[in-house]
Amino acid sequence: MKRTWLGAAIAACFTAVLVAQPAAAGFSEWDSNDDVGIDNDEFGTGFHDRGIYETWDADNDGTMSEREFNEGVYGTYDRDNNGVIDEKEYDMLDDDIGPDGRWGL
User: Fold this and answer.
1) How far, in Å, are 14, 27, 42, 44, 48 from residue 34 at the CA level?
2) Distance (Å, rounded) from C-alpha 105 to C-alpha 65?
3) What does the alpha-carbon distance between residue 90 and residue 78 come to, in Å, rounded to a whole number?
């Protein structure tokens, strides 16, 4: 169950960032082969080029541990970076993980 949740969380988080990042960077920058879609390789390149993996790899060992991933996701919802997810921030998380949210859990 934990692995299923973690896998879903990883996919959902990357999907959430995918939606925000191409809009900010320009969809065509992510869609490097101009086929009107971002494939898995382009997705990984987009994350790499924007330093997302390096940012979340807190100990700089070249891998992202479960703890580092959780801290990255936590930071996504702790919008004011005060170390606490308040009720408004939790509502955003709850909306995303609900059955009609991005995560669909």
Assistant:
1) 21, 9, 11, 16, 19
2) 22
3) 9
Q: Which residue has the tokens 């809009």?
A: 23
Q: How many CB atoms lie within 10 A of CB 47?
A: 19
> Could you tell me the maximum CA-CA distance found in the chain, to the nearest angstrom?
42
Q: What is the pLDDT of residues 65-90, one digit of tens each?
A: 999 988 988 998 999 999 999 999 99
According to DSSP H, which parts of 1-105 are helical? Answer: 2-25, 27-30, 40-49, 52-56, 66-77, 87-97
Q: Where do the DSSP E strands lie in 1-105?
A: none
CA distance 98 to 105: 6
**Which residues of the chain register pLDDT less than 70?**
1-25
